[in-house]
Amino acid sequence: MLTNPKLYEINTRVWLKKINRKLSDLPFTFFTDLAQKGINIVWLMGLWKTTSGTIEKYCFTQELVNSYDKALKGWKKEDVIGSPYSIDEYDVNPELGSWEDLIDLKRRLNNIGIKLLLDFVPNHFSVESRVLKTHSDIFLQADEELYQKDPFTFFKNPFNPKMILAHGRDPLFPAWQDTVQVNYFNTNARDYLCKILLKLVEVCDGVRCDMAMLPLNNVFFNTWVGVLNKTNFIKPLDEFWEMAIKTVKGTNSSFIFLAEAYWDLEWDLQQLGFDFTYDKRLADRLASEYLPEVIAHLKAGKEFQNKLARFIENHDEPRAVTKFGKFRSLAAATVISTIQGMRFYYDGQFEGKKIKLPVQLGKEPEERLSNTIRKYYEKLLNITKEDIFTQGEWELLEPITVGNGNLSYENFLAWQWSYKNARGLVVINYSESTSQCRIKIETSSKRDFIILQDQLNGKVFDRSMSEIKNPGLFIELKGYASHIFTFNEL
User: Is residue 324 part of a domain?
Assistant: First the structure.
C-alpha cells in the first residue's frame, strides 16, 4: 500500500468539455505535471455512463436550480447533464471515450508513477438503469401500501410497473429520486456488485466508494427497517465490504479502496479492509478553528491516522478559499499536506477557485485565479514529495509558552518527521494574529549548533542545541503563516 500518498480529484466531464478532448487524446503533460508535484493517484470522478432521460425529470427541482444560479450565471438547459452518481451501468460514458481508451490511459498513467482511481457507487443505480431490465431482483422491493404512503421514496419500475422499488437514500435526507436502491440483504445483489468490482480491476487501480457506510448491515437495516420487515430478507452474518474487498484483493492485492465515510464509522470501515477513509472530522475542525479539537484528533492511533484521507475541499464541499478564507486555507492546506495519511486535493484547489459546482452541471464559470495561492501550493507540494514527508515517522509536538503570561502559543500546531538522519519540523500559526511559542526538540545530534532550513520561506537559521533542548526553539509567525524546517542530525 502507498504510504502518505497524494490524491488529485478531477471532475472529468466538466474538465474534458472545457479542453474539448476525450480520453483518447488527453493533453498528457497535465498528468506529468501532477506527477512532478508528487501526485501519485488521480481520481477521474464521473466517468461512467448515465441515463439522459432522468435529467428533465429530476435535475430541475427548485433547490437544484438555485444551486445552478449561484454557481453559473446565465446557465442554459443543455449545461445540465445529470448526476454522475446516477449510473446506468459501469461502462465508459460514450461522450468521453471507450473501455479501451480507459485501459490505455491507466497504462500511460502507471508508466509515470500515477495510479488511476474511479467511482464505485454501491448504494444505488440510476432510476432508469438498464440493470432494472436484466437484474431487477438486486434492488429493494416494496409494496403498494408503502408506495401509496410515500410516493417520494418509492416508485414503480419503469420497465415493469407491477414492481414497486425504493429510491436510494441516506437515512438523514430525503430519497434521491433519480436512483434505485440496491438490497444489501440479497445475496444476488452482493454477488452482482462484487462482479462489477472484479471487472473494474481491468481499467483502474482502485475505487472511491460513494457513501460507503450505507451498505453496512446495521445502517442498511435502520434505514429500511419498514421495508425489510415486510420481506423474507434477514440481516446477513457478514458485511458486504469484508467479502468484496477480500475477493478483489485476492485478484489484485494492491487495488485501492477509498471510502467516503461519515458518522464516526471510519474505523469500522478500515477494519473491513478499506485502505483509506475520508477524514471529514479534521476538515470540519480546521474550519471551526478550535485547535484543541484539531490536536485531539491528531492524537489518534497511528494505524487509524495512516488510513485517513485528509482534505479541505472536494466536489461535495465548498471551495477551501470560500470556506476558510485565502490565508487560512493555505494554513489548512499545510496541515493536511504534512500529517500522516492520504493528502487529498481537488482540481482548481491549487489555483484558488472559489465556486462550488453542482455535480449536475457540465460547465464551470470562468474565474480569476490566484497567483499567490498557486505559488504557495507549488512550494508546498515540492517540499512534501520528499522522502522525509512520505516515508518518515510522524510525531505530534507540543508548543509551549515563551513566558511572561504570553498565551499565543495556544495558536500553534507543530509536529516533526524523522527519516534516516533527516528531520523535518512543521510549525503553523493557525490564527490571524502574530503569535509566539517555543518548541522543544529531542535530538541525538552531538553538534553545538543546528542549521534549520526553512523550505517554505527560503530562509536559513542557525540555532544552538542548548536552546533547542531547553527552553526550546523560539518561533514567531504572522497570522496563518508556517515554517517547514528540515535539518540533519549528523
Answer: yes
